[in-house]
Amino acid sequence: MDFSLSSEQKMIQDSVSRFILNDYDFDTRRKIITSAAGYSQKNWNTFAELGWLMLPFTEEDGGLGGSMTDLMLVMEEFGKGMVVEPFIATAVMAGGLVALAGNQQQKDDYLPRIMAGELQMAFAYAEPQSRYQLNNVTCRANETQGEFFLSGHKSVVLNGNHADTLIVSARSSGENSDEQGISLFLVDANHPSVKREGYANVDGHQAADIWFDNTPTLGLLGEQDNALPAINNIIDKATLAICAEAVGAMQIAHERTLEYAKTRKQFGRTIGSFQALQHRMVNMFIEHQQAKSILLMAVLKMDSNNGSDAKALSAAKSRIGQAANLVGREAIQIHGGIGMTDELDVGHIFKRLTTIQYLFGSTDVHTKRFASL
Amino acid sequence: MNLNFTAEEKDFQQEVQQFLQEKLPKDTAVKTRKGLHLEKEAYIEWQQILNAKGWAATNWPIEYGGTGWSPTQKYIFANECAKAGAPDVVPFGLKMVAPIIYTFGNEEQKQRFLPDILASKVWWCQGYSETGAGSDLAGVRTTAVRDGDEYVINGTKTWTTLGQYADWIFCLVRTGPPSAKNQEAISFILINMHDPKITVSPIITIDGKHEVNEVHFDGVRVPAENLIGAEGQGWTYAKVLLTHERTGIARVAISKERLVQLKELAATSPDGDNKLMDDLIFAQKVAKLEIDLLALEYTELRTLSAISTGKAPGPESSILKIVGTQIIQAIDELYVEAAGYYSMPYVPQQFHDDFDGQYIGSDMAANSALRYFNNRKASIYGGSNEIQTNIISKAVLGL
Q1: Residues of A with CB below 8 A from B396's CB?
Q2: In this predicted model, what pLDDT tens digit does every residue of A259-270 receive, in sequence order?
Q3: How far away is chain B from the Cα of A36, in angstroms, using its nearest Cα?
Q4: Cβ within 8 Å of residue A42, ≥6 positions away
Q5: I need a surface site. Which of A60, A82, A211, B34 has the fewest CB within 10 A?
Q6: Cross-chain Cβ contact A296/B283 below 8 Å
Q7: Fold of the domain spanning A122-225
Q8: Per-residue DSSP letters for A221-262?
Q9: Domains (range + CATH), chain B
Q10: Could you tell me the pLDDT band of residue A2, with boundaries at 50, 70 and 90?
Q11: What residues of chain A have any CB closer than 8 angstroms to a CB in chain B?
């Protein structure tokens, strides 16, 4: 049993941590999320230059690692700065699917451009009726003379408005909730038959609802009718990424709350001297520590099982969702009125901690999944 | 980072398993699993078996007869013991007073007390709490007044666990003048319980059992050589020990085993035409608890890992007692819920260790409520969870 990081891993952690500290302060982030693009191309280029976009990929695929430990290190630091650049959408999810399901030609076409920061991608899987059920797919893939054409509606596709290329899950056979009959397709996001309605989410991340109307594809990704295992795998990996992000964000929420409680005075003394508030801040601390521990558990178990362990992952998402809920709410409450303002970072951390709870399966969904496995 | 045990650690695990298989008395294992009352003799028998193997003192330094185990070995040992149904060693001698004696005692005291503790020849109990000194432990009023080569002890200690069996008691007593600041007036002294001027009176707790006692000292004369360290330093010694001993405080291994058994119980307990575990709400409560326990296990492992690499345990170690006891209590509560109607009958003889009749309901169900009642103590003893929260607030968060 060894919980220490390798020197390479420490270097990654340091380099992301320095970037957040020096180049991603709260004001910089505000300018980014209120800009037209909603994310910074300059930062994206930096991610590529520093090799961070290579981290989710194995050396065999031209990457730098691909372990859950690496992913955790980057995402925990990203969480401290509330990074909005589409690392998860492009590199973890879309890139991850190409690496997992793609043939050599597809890997050669897409992975180097993702890692170089030249290509934006998105994974369109959720639908208005599906909620968190990945096997519930009604978007149709109709085959005509050996070519597939997609029709349907995909919900809240992260980075969907900026992606050049989409990966779309569609039903090539079977009924709405059949586990078989789902396939993945690469799609040109700018094709005239693709309608995209882009927006920013409440947490500052970019997304879109997307409609396909007899849209031609750039090809099948992976095995026809049997894409569900790959989809599950990649959503689990993305879930681990936001779990780590939440642990980083909770740390900052807790630190900010402590700093504030030690300086803010009411009734002639600092509010941090009141036991009612002290105990609540200790609870925040306990939640953060328990979240950090269960994240470590999931990372270690996934890494020792070829990157996948659904039960461990769901345990982590369930526990971290619960912690994120408490830490986010308490950070606002203990700050009082100032915590409600847009100009303070705490409210923004709260918003991200909130969306994380409902992304890739809610706390309850993952508790149920944990119990069923 | 990796999760795997080394080859040596795997060998060790096998050795522990084999030892427990061969040496743990079956009767004791059954009673421990069911949470039945164990007699003094059963504890002593088991501790002497451990000692014969050299495994009685898992946290002592080797020079005094400890195992010298790594944190990982301690983790393995605790888990295997819980799985096998081995009872905890009675902590007062082996885990509480011994570390104070070998850390702060003089050579003569070490020679005199440690070998008998290791061999479980002497039963110790703890004299800390008083009616006026619970969470505010520094408010102890029991006095030790120096008279020549002796101290004269007067006062009453309470919540003295298994004091009815004890040969010796270690006490926090007031040696300073009444004007002295609380913490600076407290000393640590060892007292022979067989003194005729000591009386022990039982306290019956809400589970109907006699586990704790009041111990009255009425002019008990104790040789001055029984004082540990310096006068007025007792509070410091007691505190050092509290912050030092983290291993096992979360009781993760035992809770893991209890949860496994709870799931078995719920999976076999009828709920009309279904089983209790089919009930989504009950299953969700179990799942949440299991997840929280998993997080706690890794909090403990993070602590152990820091210690094993020579670092001081991080701030995460401070939460072990709070979360550990919350989980123990939550598991007990779910046992009561699982038992349903059969959590209710109170038939004292079926909880006694020589009971061999037919249980009303199942044996698991029969015991559930009493365990739940008994373990309400977990968030009160050893510094209540509110005191633990105050400590984290001050020491870790700097509030």
Answers
A1: 285
A2: 999 999 999 999
A3: 41
A4: none
A5: A60
A6: no
A7: Butyryl-CoA Dehydrogenase, subunit A; domain 2 (2.40.110)
A8: ESSTTB-HHHHHHHHHHHHHHHHHHHHHHHHHHHHHHHHHHH
A9: 7-89 (no CATH), 123-232 (2.40.110.10), 250-395 (1.20.140.10)
A10: confident
A11: 1-5, 69, 258, 261-262, 272-273, 275, 278-279, 281-282, 285-286, 289-294, 296-297, 299-301, 303-304, 315, 318-319, 364, 367-368, 370-371
The 10s digit of each residue's pLDDT in B357-395 is: 888 887 777 789 999 999 999 999 888 999 999 999 999
**Closest Cα to residue B80, out of B253, B235, B219, B244?**
B253
pLDDT at residue A146 above 70? yes
Nearest-CB residue to A69 (from B1, B319, B393): B1
CB contact under 8 A, B287 and A278: no
Phi-psi region at B229: left, alpha or beta (left = phi > 0; alpha = psi -120 to 50)? left
pLDDT at B245 over 60: no
Residue among B284, B316, B393 minimizing CB distance to A281: B393
Cβ atoms within 10 Å, residue B301: 21
Question: What is residue B246's predicted lDDT score, i.e. its pLDDT?
Answer: 58
Cβ contact, residue pair A294, B291, below 8 Å: yes
Q: Where are the domains of chain A?
A: 7-119, 122-225, 229-372
Is B245 annotated in the active site?
yes
Q: Is B284 on the interface with A (CB under 8 A)?
A: yes
| B310 neighbourhood in chain A, CB within 8 Å | none
Query: Quick one: pLDDT band at residue B308, thresholds 50, 70, 90?
Result: confident
Compare B399 and B313 and report the one with higher pLDDT.
B399
Query: Residue B330: is its pLDDT beyond 90?
Result: yes
SS3 for B217? strand
Whether residue A328 has pLDDT greater than 90:
yes
| pTM for this prediction | 0.94
The nearest CA of chain A is from the CA of B307 a distance in Å of 11
**Structure confidence at residue A270 (pLDDT):** 98
pLDDT number for residue B70: 85
Class of domain A7-119: mainly alpha
ipTM confidence: 0.94
DSSP element (H, E) containing A28 = helix A26-34
Q: What are the Cα distances from residue A269, in Å, to A104, A261, A263, A278, A284?
A: 66, 10, 9, 14, 22
Q: Do A297 and B298 touch (CB under 8 A)?
A: yes
Mean pLDDT to the nearest integer, B264-293: 96
Alpha helices, DSSP H, located in B269-399: 280-308, 320-339, 363-374, 385-391
Task: Check CB contact under 8 Å for A299 and B1.
Answer: yes
Suggest the residue from A258, A289, A297, A319 to mutate for an interface test with chain B (most B CBs closer than 10 A): A289
Strand, helix or coil at B84?
Answer: helix
Q: How far is B87 from chain A (nearest CA, A)?
A: 26
